[in-house]
Write a structure and sequence with these properties.
With 260 residues, the protein is mostly helical. It is 84% helix and 0% strand. It is built from ten helices and no strands. Helix 3 packs across helix 6, helix 8 runs parallel beside helix 9 and helix 8 runs antiparallel to helix 10 (214-259). 29% of the residues are buried.
Length: 260
């Protein structure tokens, strides 16, 4: 409660400064709409259902692109562990693509795939793939060799070593990569929707800007932040729950071994 109280207080102070800046008259309400006007626009879009439709579209795109990126990143990380010699053939290409902003490819992707869903999904995949791939690769390659020796001593084959030793060892790095990749997915989809889309939160902001509705622009920005925080908190809760379950199962196994 104390932690949440500090966060709420910080938000209230920011809103007060925002309101004071609007009252000062230095900027017009068009440039800096007051909090009340933004809240009214936000409520109107929520009440009409328009905002929920745009949120759903953006969420669907993020889930699709993020899922594809995770599968590719996991496959790439597994290949880096199982076939380390092959990595030299594609490492340079991955390093090159990692330094190319995905949004810079939107013009080329539109030329190839049009302004449909495919180009936006590819942008999300390119944005979220690399943080997940690098963390998954790190988790697999940082395995303690002594654990592998123990597995071989117990007669574990290569598949059993991977599923029972390597994969559990890499879980923390995999989850970190997924969390970072999810944030990159949101950044990418909003940018893509502002360039080529007819639905989504990014399109909502761009359409409001073209209609000279700065209150809706700010409302859209606040929506992006709120949805992003909600997704991050849900993912963090999932990580915490998995960690608690692993500790509980580990303690139970330890007690059973002690009893035996």
């Amino acid at each position: 409660m104390k932690h949440w109280g500090k966060q709420v207080l910080g938000i209230m102070l920011l809103a007060a400064v925002w309101q004071a800046a609007s009252w000062s008259g230095i900027w017009s309400s068009y440039i800096l709409p007051p909090p009340g006007k933004v809240a009214g626009a936000l409520w109107a879009m929520m009440d009409s259902g328009v905002l929920w439709q745009h949120i759903f579209v953006s969420l669907r795109r993020v889930v699709q692109g993020f899922s594809i990126a995770f599968l590719l990143a996991f496959a790439g990380g597994t290949a880096a562990y199982e076939l380390p010699g092959m990595e030299e053939y594609y490492k340079g290409f991955l390093e090159f693509m990692r330094n190319v902003p995905p949004i810079s490819l939107i013009a080329l992707l539109i030329l190839w795939f049009g302004i449909g869903e495919t180009s936006k999904i590819i942008i999300i995949v390119l944005a979220s793939f690399f943080p997940m791939y690098l963390n998954i690769r790190k988790g697999f390659l940082s395995i303690d060799k002594k654990l592998l020796e123990v597995g071989r001593a117990f007669g574990f084959g290569r598949w059993r070593q991977f599923t029972r030793i390597v994969l559990p060892w890499a879980v923390p790095d995999i989850l970190i990569g997924m969390k970072v990749g999810l944030g990159y997915s949101w950044r990418a989809i909003i940018g893509a929707e502002m360039i080529a889309a007819s639905r989504g939160i990014g399109y909502l902001i761009l359409d409001a800007q073209q209609m000279s509705r700065s209150d809706k622009v700010v409302a859209g920005i606040l929506t992006i932040g709120a949805v992003g925080i909600a997704c991050d908190r849900l993912f963090q809760a999932l990580i915490s729950r998995m960690a608690v379950r692993e500790r509980t199962e580990g303690a139970a196994a330890h007690e059973n071994q002690g009893f035996m």
